[in-house]
Amino acid sequence: MFYKLKPYTSDKTFAISYKEPLKVPVRINVSKDTIYMTVHVEFDPFFLEPIDRTDSKDALLKSKPEGYSLADAFVEGIRNQWAKTYVFEGSSKPVVVKMNIIRKDDKDAEYDSAQRFFKVRHTNMSSTSFVTSPVWRMGWGFLITGCPEAAMINWSLKNPGTINMNSYSRISVFQSVSAHEFGHVLGIGDAYGAHYRCFFEAPGTEDYMMNSNRCVNPRELEMVLRAHETGRMQYFPYRVSIPRFFKNVFGSVNKE
User: What phi and psi, each to the nearest 5 degrees, are found at residue 44?
Assistant: First the structure.
């Protein structure tokens, strides 16, 4: 839980290491006042095609160069939101996150042939985007952790999940959602009142990336570091309330 995190004080606070680094799609290295993220990502061919901007009224999209794709937008989204300067609670010293994003579709990218990538694929299954583990990992994560979120995202360093992204009508929305879903791949859960959280919103997280897609909070980065240190996904606190659950479920049904 995020409220149990140790304060970030030095590169020795989070002892992050990987026994089989080539099997880990996203690796983190902590060095004094800098945190390096090496991200290996593979995109669905749908995301590699240039975005059709013929009838678009999206000013941000129109400012992008010809050939700009949703894969480009995804990379920009996660870099803009996660690769920045943070000041952790209890410390006045800023910490900088730098990100090296290696795309499998980049012909000039250099990586070992045995390197594992996480995938971003297109989905029309719902109006939202989400992260799923492979079918063979689904379900039993809940039995191990006791957390409902782990049933669908049975996270591990080697199997951080697949991001299923909708295209959305505006690039800014696509990018903010990309940054949120990337948070799951990094190893942290949701903070908003989702049904699998029994509709409980983690207190004080209104502006967090994992709640409202707004901005990555230093505590969220701390949770990521702890996930990579322990090899276990970090969850925001939630409370089970049967009355609240039924109120939200049956309340929404009655409105339809």
Answer: -60, 140
Residue partners of 222: CB distance under 8 A and separation at least 6: 2, 5, 8, 88
Q: What is the dihedral of CA 17, 22, 27, 29, to 10 degrees?
A: 50
Query: What's the pTM value of the predicted model, to 2 decimals?
Result: 0.90
Instruction: Please tell me the number of Cα atoms within 13 Å of 250 on its side-chain side.
Output: 6
Q: Can you give the pLDDT of all 256 residues of the chain as single tens digits?
A: 444 445 555 444 789 999 999 999 999 999 888 999 999 999 999 999 999 998 899 999 999 999 999 999 999 999 999 999 999 988 888 999 999 999 999 999 999 999 999 999 999 777 899 999 999 999 998 888 888 888 889 999 999 999 999 989 999 999 999 999 999 999 999 999 877 777 789 999 999 999 999 999 999 999 999 999 999 999 998 766 556 555 555 554 333 3
Is residue 152 within 8 A of residue 58, CB to CB? The reply is no
Which among 112, 122, 150 is positioned nearest to 23, based on CA atoms? 112
* Cβ contact 6:90 at 8 Å: no
Give the closest residue to 185 by CA, choosing from 106, 113, 71, 78. 78
Strands (E), the chain: 26-31, 34-43, 85-87, 94-103, 118-122, 130-132, 162-165
User: Which single residue is written with the structure tokens 């680094």?
Assistant: 21
**Cα-flanking dihedrals φ and ψ of residue 234, to 5°?**
-105, 130
